[in-house]
Design the sequence.
């Protein structure tokens, strides 16, 4: 803050320390009203010197002004400002019961209007999404899961691109023997079906539960392609 007309910092420390003592004597935590930090100020001859810097609350600024030298124009102006503000607070007429009730009604009306706007936005989104949901519901498996290709279409990704992104962010495994199998902590969003691979090895196909669609969207976002029904055959992941 400005030094209120004091030509040297050490002179300004006099009203500042008085204000801190006044706050402490009134039972206030001075450290919360007079937050101090240290900064280094450069010198012409080189190097720097450490100086305390204070950030004052409004209450602290009031106490500093009241403990300042009124012969200084800046201090007198600050004292006058706080005196005027105190007088305004003293003569301000409290709200009547009717006025308080009217304010509460207006605030309630604003809250209701905001809620209606949110509901309208939600309903509009549901109406927009409904055809997409209906288009993909027929591809929901009997076990209540989606194939990866269908989910990729839902979110506007290419299937392989989506799988690559899920491996990169640690949702799916990139280990050769567990390729594209979700990590244990994400397993609740997926269903894994094992199958025989080349007669000797075991492979796995990953399917997505309904919760997984939103999980994937929140994790990697949506792709640049519009959702469509073009790629609907899921290929076993091996």
Sequence:
């Amino acid at each position: 803050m400005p030094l209120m007309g004091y030509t040297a910092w050490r002179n300004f420390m006099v009203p500042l320390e008085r204000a801190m003592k006044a706050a402490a004597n009134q039972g206030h935590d001075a450290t919360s009203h007079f937050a101090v930090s240290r900064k280094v100020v450069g010198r012409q001859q080189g190097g720097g010197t450490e100086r305390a810097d204070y950030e004052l609350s409004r209450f602290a600024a009031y106490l500093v002004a009241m403990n300042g030298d009124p012969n200084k124009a800046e201090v007198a102006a600050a004292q006058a400002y706080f005196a005027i503000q105190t007088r305004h607070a003293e003569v301000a007429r409290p709200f009547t019961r009717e006025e308080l009730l009217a304010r509460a009604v207006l605030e309630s009306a604003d809250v209701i209007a905001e809620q209606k706007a949110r509901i309208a936005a939600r309903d509009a989104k549901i109406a927009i999404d409904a055809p997409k949901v209906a288009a993909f519901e027929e591809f929901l498996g009997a076990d209540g899961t989606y194939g990866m290709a269908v989910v990729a279409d839902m979110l506007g990704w290419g299937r392989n691109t989506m799988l690559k992104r899920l491996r990169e962010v640690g949702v799916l495994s990139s280990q050769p023997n567990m390729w594209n199998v979700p990590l244990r902590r994400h397993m609740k969003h997926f269903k894994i079906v094992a199958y025989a691979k080349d007669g000797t090895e075991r492979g796995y196909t990953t399917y997505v539960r309904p919760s997984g669609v939103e999980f994937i969207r929140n994790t990697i976002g949506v792709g640049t392609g519009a959702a469509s029904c073009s790629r609907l055959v899921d290929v076993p992941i091996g």
Residues 122 and 218 are 18 Å apart (CA to CA). DSSP finds eight helices and four strands in the chain. The first helix runs from residue 9 to 25. Residues 226-238 have pLDDT under 50 and may be disordered.
